[in-house]
Structure formats: C-alpha cells, structure tokens
Description:
The chain is an alpha+beta fold. The chain is built from 12 helices and 9 strands. Helix 4 (169-196) runs parallel beside helix 6, helix 6 (231-260) runs parallel beside helix 8 (301-332) and helix 7 packs antiparallel against helix 8.
Amino acid sequence: MNWITPEIQKEFDELDCSTAFREPGQIDDPTIPLVTCDRNGLSKFILGPVELDGANISDASNGTVQSSTGASTNTWAVNLDFDDVGTAAFSTVTKRLFPLELPRNQFAITLDGFVITAPTTQAVITNGSAQITGSFDRDSSKVLADQLKYGSLPIGFEVQSQENISATLGQDQLTSGLLAGLIGLILVVIYSAFQYRGLAIVTIGSLLVAAVLVYLLIAFLSWRQGYRLSMAGVAGLIVSIGVTVDSFIVYFERVRDEIREGRNLEVAVENAWRRSIRTILASDAVSFIAAATLFILTVGNVRGFAFTLGLTTIVDLIVVMLFTHPLLQLLARTKFFSSGHPWSGFDSKALKASGYVGRGQFRVAPSLPQGKALKVSKEAATRQTIAERKAQAAQEEADRTGGR
C-alpha cells in the first residue's frame, strides 16, 4: 500500500466515473498504480502495478459450476487456465491476497484501461486453474470469457469517406426496385398474350404461383432465421422472372413443334414434356450453380442477389413440374385448346402443320409452298424416333436390293 501517494489519492477523490474518458489507443504504464473506473461507470479503483499479464492466460471459457458430487448446477462461472509463468504469478498473488480483508483481497482485471471484473480471492490457487463466480448468466459469462481469452484486439479504424444519406433513401430504392419488377412483369404478360394467345393464362398462373411460393419462403426465413431482403435480393427476384418465363417458352415451343408434325394436342403435350424437361433441368442447373458459386465466393450485397436467384431457380423447377405441366395437360383436354382455336395459341393453320405418316413419309399441309413444304419435311425428319429411323433404313435397303 506504500504506493498510494497523496497525489494518487487526490486523483482518486476527484475522479468522476460518469464522465471518465480515455483517448483512443492510450496505453497505461504497467509498472505504476492506475486510477480508473469499471466499464459501467459505477465504481472506481486504485490499482497497483500489473502482476500478471493477459498473455499468460492460455484459455478462458464459461460453464456451469460443478457441485462437490460432480453434478452441474444452474450457476454460471468463468473458468481460467494459465501457462507456466501465469500459474506461478497467480499463485504468488493469491497467497498474498487470501488472508486480507475486503477490499484488499480483491484483484482487478482491466481491458483498455477499464476494470471489467474485480473478484475477491477465496482460496490460494497453485494449479493454474481458477474460476470466477458471481451474478452471471450464460451471455454475461460468455462475454467475460471472450474478453479474457482474446483481450483487446489491436485494430484501428481510419475514416476513408463520409457521406450523409437521407433516411428516405432506402424506401425510395425499394419503391424503384418494386416498380422495375412490376414493369418487367407487365411486359412479360404482354409478350405472352401476343405470342401465345390463350397460353398466356398458363404463364400468368405459373408466375403467380411462383410469386406466392417465393413470398412464403422469404417470410419463413425471416421468421426463423432473421433473413432480411436487401435491394440486391430484390434484383435477384426481378431476374428470376426471366428465368421462369424462359422455362415456359422452352416448353410451349416444343409443344408447337409437335403440333407442326401433325400430332394432336394431348400427344403433343406429353411428347414435348419429355423432351423439354431435360432442357429446363439443364438451364436451371446452370443458374443454380452460378448462384451457389456467387454465394460462396462473394460477400455483402452480391450474396443477397445470389441467394434469391438460387431460391427462385428451385421454385421455378417446382412450379414447372407441379403446376405448369399439369395445367397444360388439363387445358389440352378442353375443346378450346384441342380444336386449335385461333386464340388458343395452338392454331394448326397458323403453325403450318405437317403430318408424319411413317416410313419417313410426311403429309405436307397443302397451303404451304413447295419449297417451304420440303424444308418442313426435312426438319420433321430429324425428329424421328430410333425405331422409325431403323425401319426407314431397312425399307430403303429392301428397295435397293429388290427385296432379296
């Protein structure tokens, strides 16, 4: 106690912890006494010279106190382990403090010049393992254990730029993003109605189902995982409209190709589905792999874009398989679509259909010019099945050999 001089006592008396302030990066001399406060500004201390450095703490963790029988209690504590130097120093300190009365039997642990805890010495500890108990819960004991284990990180911050942003900017950006998405959706609907006539109801219905699924998934993730939709995420949702519509176009055009070959609508839908699903799976796989790569390798807003793009890609596949295809199967059985109504999107005359009659022969629609008919015939020939091509080759061989 001989290091408590009148100057230090005066400094202690005049210290007001409610206004205590330390300069950033200020370093205290560990060889002289320190007058300081705790983190909360509720208590002030006169501390002697440093006797044990934080570098001598090998580990710190939180956990519940074990009873004498080894059973775990509901009391939380912080456990300390010292290295060899720390074990010897802490043993010396506890031997000196243990016989003393409060508050002289306390030792303080400081971080950045403030006291973070000041436990009393309740035993002489010579084995290098100590335990700090008190009014801890799980969180507070974890915070103290981390402070003791990692200390003050030597990180400084330098202002590179400063900008004042209006509080309404986020709302303006969100409004602009949603408006852009709405415009894109309207353009998609107009294109679908112009290009596919009655099939536009399939496109619109599928987009609505996809939108509901995405909304429910984002709401669930927000509730369970605290997910928040950013502007980059909104951009990913807008891009997903194109991804989803692309799947519809692949499917619809394949159905039209089947009708051009002379098949009725129900058969055309089934054949087109078997062929187009492979293309759709490949396209969605590429989109998902790209989104996953961006999510893993990037940070910040790009991850938000990648997450929503990957999520909507999965939703697109679900909607096409479980809604779009079944809906088109049902519509193919209705008179409006199966009869090839001009507004159905499957008008055989508008599609200039040609019929395959077997053996490599095609019934060409009479309304087609001769050159166009030949082109359609050749195009349809490339879509023969393996069995049909084998039969055609056998027939050609028989014709060439005269049936021998």
